[in-house]
Amino acid sequence: MLESAKLDEVRAALHSEARVRAAEHPIRLAFQEGVLTMEGEVADIAAKKLALERAAAVSGVTHIVDRLHVAPAERQEDGLIRDLVRDALIAEPAFGEISIGVWNKGAIETARRVDKARGVIELRIEKGVVTLAGDVPGLDYKRLAGVLAWWVPGSRDVVNGLGVTPPEQDSDAAMTEAVRIALEKDPFINADQIRVSTKDSVVTLMGLVPKESEREMAEYDAWYVFGVDKVVNRIEVRA
Question: Angle at Cα 172 formed by Cα 219 and Cα 54, nearest 5°?
Fold first, then answer.
């Protein structure tokens, strides 16, 4: 009875957040001894993170098992997603000194080997879910790799398991810089017109853009950054 009541609280919390669109995208829930399991396909990355935030705020939820995936803009085979993410990582100048490996049919294949590499990224795709493993020399590398994986059509989720060596203390300033980098890398956005600030993992975007689509893309880029819990979009659209 207690578990049923707790699930009702979580459902009410999800329905209270309009962007989760819980009626259109039902989320399957299970609750046992403080552990909440959330499973299903949500509309976008904002819906996923906001659903997790609302559920975590429910009293008695001590841990969440996240099995939420994002409905992709277009469905793609795992092999194509793998190749596109691999190519994006290899083409990124920031990763020039990092070796790239790809899991294919149960074995790791070397996509790029770098002598005296500063790190390694290993890529695995399963049912549209991109998993990044390995080790990189900074949080900015970890976050940029995750954004590039999210940008690939067909990606339903990005599990960013990249380690950072040497260990690096995270901060609002580091998160702000990561969002700025993502905006600057996005060819569809004029990052010079957007200001970014972060407080307690909540990113605020301000500035002017000429189209609503650009405003939306800037917000999604911020959501894609690892560690960002919420995005406040105060960008104005002016032709």
Answer: 60
Residue positions counted in the chain: 239
Side-chain-side CA neighbours of residue 145 (13 Å): 32
What beta strand segments (E) does the chain contain?
28-32, 35-42, 63-70, 98-104, 107-112, 119-126, 129-136, 157-160, 163-164, 194-199, 202-209, 230-237
How many domains are there within the chain? 3
Residue 148: domain span = 78-164
Rounded to an integer, what distance in angstroms lies between the CA atom of residue 117 and that of residue 96? 9
> Which pLDDT tens digit goes with each residue over 105-118?
889 999 999 999 99
**Which CATH number characterizes residue 202's domain?**
3.30.1340.30
Q: How far apart are CA 12 and CA 114, in angstroms?
A: 51
Q: Looking at the structure, do residues 156 and 182 belong to the same domain, yes or no?
A: no
Q: What is the pLDDT of residues 118-147, one digit of tens each?
A: 999 999 999 999 999 999 999 999 999 999
Is the whole model's pTM more than 0.90, yes or no? Answer: yes
What residue ranges of the chain have pLDDT lower than 50? none
Please identify, among 10, 45, 70, the residue that sits at the C-terminal boundary of a domain: 70
